[in-house]
C-alpha cells in the first residue's frame, strides 16, 4: 500500500518538534522568501530584497563573498589539518610528509586545498579591494568600512605568512628568519633598527624577541606561529568580518543596490 | 526571471528612477551558492593535480638559492633589496597600510560612488591603479627575473652561478643627499600647489599634504630602485643614524 | 520635568555623590584594565619569556692545524666561517646583516653572497654590494686548554682583530 504523501509530510512537518526548529513553511510564497532571509541566522546578513541590477555579476564579481567563503573553507580544512599536525620542530615536517602520502584519508587533498585556497584568498582580497576602489564604494558614509577592509587585508597576509611557516621546511624557516628580522629592524623598538639604543632595546627584549619567544629560531618560534595562525589571527579576522558585514548592511550597498 | 518576481518599489526620490527590486531568496542567494560551488570545483580539481609546495626540511646552515618567498610577498622581498630593512620592512609597509586606510578621508570627490567610471575621478584611479600595478610588477620581477644569489636573470635566460660580481655600491655625501631629498620632497610638495591651484584649494592643506607625501613616497621608491639598478647607488642619504 | 533635568546636570559633576562614584568607578576600571594590558602586551610583558633554552654561545671548532693554510671553512651547524691566513684566525658570522639568511662562501669569486636578497661581502666580511647595511660580525676566538679553537658568539669584536697562533 502506498502511503499518502501529503499525510506523511503533514506528519513530519506538522508536529511540535519540527515546528520548534523551523520557524516557517517552505512554500514558495513572497512572505516565505522574505522570512527565509530575515528569519534565518545564516541568511540575515542579506537584505530581504535587492535591486535587480545587483544580480549582474559584473559589479562585484562576487569577490567579497568569495573571500568570506574561502575564509570559512580555510577554517574547516584548517581544523581538520590540526588533527594531524604537531607544532614541534622535530615532528612538523614529518607530519607534512605523512599528510602528503595520505597517511590520513584525503590528507594530501586536505593539505593541497588548504594551501591553494590560501593563495586564492590573497587574490580575491586584493581584487575585492581594487573593485571597491574602482567603484568608489568607500566614499561617504562607507569610509570606516574601507578601514576595516584594509585591516582584514593585512590579517589575510599575516595568516598566509604564519601558515607557510608551519611545515618547518626551507621556505618556512627562512621566511620566519627574514620576517622576524624585519620586526627587529623597527625604528626605536627593534634591536637592529635605527635609534634602538635610545630605549635600550637589545636582542633579548625587543619586538623580534616577543615574536620568536627567544633570541634565535627554536621550538618556541614554531609554537607561537602555530597559535597565531590557528587561534589568534582567525579569531581577530572573524570578529572584523562580522563588523565588516554589519557595516555593509547599516551603511547600505553602494550603487544603490 | 519572470515579471511576477519583480517587486516594483515606489520611485526613488533622489534619482527619480523606478527601482526594480527582487527577492534576495532565491535570486541572489542562488548566485552566491553557485559562485561558492564553482570555487570548490576549481580548488579541488587544481589541488588534485598540483601538489602544494613543500621544500626540503629546514636547514639553518643553508637557505635555498635563491630563497624566494611565496609570490604574494615577493613584491616586499624585491623592495627589501633597494632599502634598509627598517624602511622597506617596517616604515614603508606602514605607509602603505595607513595610506590605504586614509584613502576615503583624503578622497573627498563625491562623484563616482557606486559605478565604474574613469572620467570623474582621473587622479584617484590613476594613482591607485599605478600603485596596484607597481606592486604586481615587483611580484613579477621577483618570480621571473631573480636567480641564484638574487641576481637578475631574464625569464628566457639560463640560471648560472658564474655571473659577474657586481661593482661596489656608492653613496653621495650626506649634504648632497639631503639636498636631493629636500629638492624631491620640497619641490614635489610645492609645484602642484601652483600648477593645479584649484585642486589644491579643493583639498585643503592637510589633505593635500598627506596625499602628496604618500604619492611622493611611492614615486620615490621607484626612483630609488632605478638609481640602484642603473647607477649602483646604495643610499640617497647616508648618516650615522639612518640611511635611505 | 525641570527637576529631572536638574538631577542630570548634577550627576555629571564629580562633587555630587552619583557623579563622584561614576568618575571613581570609571577611573578604577580603566586604570586596572590598562595596567593589566600594559603588563601583558608591553615590553617585558607576557610575550617575553624569562627563561630561555638555547644552544651555547661558546663552542669548540677544532684544532688550528685542521684548517687549510689560506682558506675559508664553512661550519654550517655553528653558522660561522673560520678564516685562516697563515697563523691568523678569525671567526666570521654566517648570518647576513641584512635580514639574517645564511650567506654562502663562493670560493671562485672570493666573496660571501646571500641567496635571499643578494648581499655581497668581501672575504673579511665587509659589505660592498646588495642591501646589507653593515659588515658581517666577527666573533671572539681563543684556544681551549686542550689546544682547540674556541668561538664565542656572544662577544663581537673589531674586524681587524685576529687570533694569532
Layout of secondary structure:
The complex is a heterotrimer of chains A (257), B (244) and C (165).
Chain A: H1 5-13, H2 16-21, H3 30-38, E1 49-51, H4 57-60, H5 63-82, H6 92-100, H7 107-134, H8 143-165, H9 170-184, H10 207-212, H11 219-251
Helix pairs in contact in A: 5-7, 6-7, 7-8, 8-9, 8-11
Chain B: E1 6-8, E2 20-23, H1 24-49, H2 74-82, H3 85-106, H4 122-144, H5 174-195, H6 197-231
Antiparallel strand pairs in B: 1-2
Helix pairs in contact in B: 2-3, 2-4, 3-6, 5-6
Chain C: H1 2-11, H2 17-41, E1 58-62, E2 70-75, E3 80-85, E4 88-93, E5 104-106, E6 111-113, E7 120-121, E8 127-129, E9 138-143, E10 149-157, E11 163-164
Antiparallel strand pairs in C: 1-10, 2-3, 3-4, 4-9, 4-11, 5-6, 6-7, 7-8, 9-10
What would you note in describing this structure?
The complex is a heterotrimer of chains A (257), B (244) and C (165). Chain A is an all-alpha fold and 257 residues long. Chain A contains 11 helices and 1 strand, in the order αααβαααααααα. Chain B has 2 domains: 3-49; 71-231, no CATH class. Chain B has helices at residues 24-49, 74-82, 85-106, 122-144, 174-195, 197-231, and strands at residues 6-8, 20-23. In chain B, helix 2 packs across helix 3 (85-106) and helix 3 (85-106) runs antiparallel to helix 6 (197-231). Chain B is flat, with a radius of gyration of 25 Å. The termini of chain B are far apart. Chain C has 165 residues and is an alpha+beta fold. Chain C is built from 2 helices and 11 strands, in the order ααβββββββββββ.
What is the straight-line distance between the termini of chain A? 53 Å
H-E string of chain A:
HHHEHHHHHHHH
The helix/strand series of chain B, from N terminus to C terminus, equals EEHHHHHH
Would you identify the regions of chain A where 5 or more consecutive residues have pLDDT less than 50? Answer: none
Level-2 CATH architecture of chain A: Up-down Bundle
Q: Summarize the amount of helix of chain A as a percent range.
A: 55-70%
The biggest beta sheet of chain A reads: none
Question: Which strand order does the major sheet of chain B show?
Answer: 1-2
Overall geometry of chain A? globular
Q: Bin the strand percentage of chain A.
A: under 5%
Question: What is the residue-mean pLDDT of chain B, rounded to a whole number?
Answer: 89
How many extended strands of chain B? Answer: 2
Q: Write out the CATH superfamily name of chain A.
A: Cytochrome Bc1 Complex, Chain C
Oligomer: heterotrimer
Amino acid at each position: 500500500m502506498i502511503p499518502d504523501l501529503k499525510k506523511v509530510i503533514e506528519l513530519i512537518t506538522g508536529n511540535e518538534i519540527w515546528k520548534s526548529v523551523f520557524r516557517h513553511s517552505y512554500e514558495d510564497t513572497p512572505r516565505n522568501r522574505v522570512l527565509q532571509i530575515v528569519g534565518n541566522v545564516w541568511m540575515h546578513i542579506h537584505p530581504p530584497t535587492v535591486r535587480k541590477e545587483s544580480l549582474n555579476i559584473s559589479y562585484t564579481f562576487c569577490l567579497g563573498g568569495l573571500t568570506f567563503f574561502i575564509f570559512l573553507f580555510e577554517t574547516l580544512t584548517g581544523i581538520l589539518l590540526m588533527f594531524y599536525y604537531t607544532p614541534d620542530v622535530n615532528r612538523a615536517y614529518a607530519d607534512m610528509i605523512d599528510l602528503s602520502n595520505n597517511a590520513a584519508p584525503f590528507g594530501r587533498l586536505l593539505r593541497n586545498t588548504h594551501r591553494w585556497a590560501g593563495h586564492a584568498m590573497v587574490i580575491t582580497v586584493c581584487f575585492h579591494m581594487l573593485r571597491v576602489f574602482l567603484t568608489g564604494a568607500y566614499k561617504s558614509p562607507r569610509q570606516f568600512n574601507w578601514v576595516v577592509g584594509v585591516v582584514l587585508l593585512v590579517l589575510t597576509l599575516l595568516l598566509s605568512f604564519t601558515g607557510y611557516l608551519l611545515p618547518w621546511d626551507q621556505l618556512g624557516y627562512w621566511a620566519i628568519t627574514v620576517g622576524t628580522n624585519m620586526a627587529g629592524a623597527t625604528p626605536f623598538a627593534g634591536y637592529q633598527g635605527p635609534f634602538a639604543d635610545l630605549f635600550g632595546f637589545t636582542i633579548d627584549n625587543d619586538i623580534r624577541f616577543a615574536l620568536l619567544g627567544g633570541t634565535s629560531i627554536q621550538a618556541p618560534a614554531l609554537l607561537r606561529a602555530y597559535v597565531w595562525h590557528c587561534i589568534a589571527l582567525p579569531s581577530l579576522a572573524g570578529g572584523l568580518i562580522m563588523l565588516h558585514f554589519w557595516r555593509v548592511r547599516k551603511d547600505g550597498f553602494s550603487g544603490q543596490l | 526571471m519572470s515579471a511576477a518576481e519583480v517587486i516594483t518599489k515606489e520611485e526613488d526620490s533622489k534619482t527619480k528612477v523606478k527601482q526594480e527590486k527582487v527577492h534576495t531568496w532565491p535570486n541572489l542567494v542562488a548566485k552566491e551558492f553557485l559562485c561558492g560551488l564553482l570555487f570548490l570545483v576549481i580548488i579541488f580539481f587544481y589541488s588534485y593535480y598540483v601538489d602544494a609546495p613543500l621544500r626540503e626540511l629546514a636547514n639553518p646552515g643553508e637557505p635555498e638559492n635563491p630563497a624566494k618567498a611565496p609570490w604574494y610577498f615577493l613584491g616586499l622581498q624585491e623592495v627589501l633589496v633597494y632599502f634598509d630593512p627598517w624602511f622597506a620592512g617596517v616604515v614603508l609597509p606602514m605607509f602603505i597600510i595607513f595610506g590605504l586606510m586614509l584613502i576615503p578621508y583624503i578622497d573627498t570627490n563625491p562623484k563616482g560612488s557606486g559605478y565604474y567610471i574613469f572620467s570623474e575621478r582621473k587622479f584617484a584611479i590613476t594613482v591607485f591603479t599605478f600603485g596596484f600595478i607597481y606592486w604586481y610588477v615587483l611580484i613579477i620581477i621577483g618570480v621571473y627575473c631573480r636567480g641564484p644569489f638574487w641576481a637578475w636573470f631574464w625569464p628566457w635566460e639560463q640560471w648560472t652561478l658564474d655571473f659577474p660580481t657586481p661593482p661596489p655600491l656608492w653613496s653621495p655625501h650626506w649634504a648632497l643627499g639631503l639636498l636631493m631629498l629636500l629638492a624631491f620632497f620640497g619641490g614635489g610638495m610645492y609645484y602642484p600647489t601652483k600648477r593645479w591651484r584649484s585642486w589644491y584649494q579643493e583639498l585643503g592643506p592637510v589633505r593635500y599634504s598627506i596625499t602628496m607625501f604618500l604619492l611622493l613616497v611611492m614615486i620615490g621608491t621607484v626612483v630609488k630602485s632605478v638609481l640602484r639598478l642603473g647607477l649602483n647607488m646604495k643610499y640617497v642619504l647616508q648618516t650615522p643614524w639612518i640611511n635611505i | 520635568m525641570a527637576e529631572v533635568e536638574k538631577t542630570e546636570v548634577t550627576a555629571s559633576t564629580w562633587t555630587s555623590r552619583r557623579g563622584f562614584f561614576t568618575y571613581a568607578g570609571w577611573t578604577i576600571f580603566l586604570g586596572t584594565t590598562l595596567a593589566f594590558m600594559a603588563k601583558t602586551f608591553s615590553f617585558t610583558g607576557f610575550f617575553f619569556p624569562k627563561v630561555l633554552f638555547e644552544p651555547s654561545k661558546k663552542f669548540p671548532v677544532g684544532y688550528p692545524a685542521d684548517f687549510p693554510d689560506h682558506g675559508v671553512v664553512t661550519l654550517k651547524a655553528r653558522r660561522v666561517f673560520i678564516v685562516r691566513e697563515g697563523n691568523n684566525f678569525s671567526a666570521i658570522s654566517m648570518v647576513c646583516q641584512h635580514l639574517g639568511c645564511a650567506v654562502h662562501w663562493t670560493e671562485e669569486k672570493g666573496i660571501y653572497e646571500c641567496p635571499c636578497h643578494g648581499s655581497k661581502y668581501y672575504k673579511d666580511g665587509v659589505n660592498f654590494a646588495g642591501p646589507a647595511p653593515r659588515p658581517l660580525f666577527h666573533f671572539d676566538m681563543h684556544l681551549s686548554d686542550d689546544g682547540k679553537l674556541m668561538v664565542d658568539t656572544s662577544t663581537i669584536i673589531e674586524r681587524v682583530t685576529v687570533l694569532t697562533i
